[in-house]
Amino acid sequence: MLKKLDEFKIGETGLIKKVEGEGRLRRRLFDMGVTPGATVYLRKKAPLGDPLEVTIRGYELTLRKSEANLVYLEVKEDG
């Protein structure tokens, strides 16, 4: 099941399948390590949902909700 990163709940983990966006924004996400095949763990959300803090490739990264809306992940089920 594909789900956008901004729809994740705290504690969910997923595998990036697709990154949308164009030009500089897409390049910026790729430069931060937000690329297909990377595993993402949602650590925290601000009270109003923006920004989000994730763990990706062994480090913590803060993304705006508008950036997280461009990242599609396959949810990893526990078990």
Question: Which keywords apply here?
Answer:
globular; 79 residues; SH3 type barrels; alpha+beta; 2 helices; 6-stranded antiparallel beta sheet
Structural overview:
It is built from two helices and six strands. It starts with a strand and ends with a strand. It has a single domain, classed as SH3 type barrels, CATH 2.30.30.90. The protein has helices spanning 23-31, 65-68, and strands at residues 2-4, 13-19, 39-45, 52-56, 59-63, 71-75. With 79 residues, it is α+β, with helices and mostly antiparallel strands. Strands 1-6-2-3-4-5 form a six-stranded antiparallel sheet. Helices cover 16% and strands 41% of the residues. The model has no long low-confidence stretch (mean pLDDT 92).
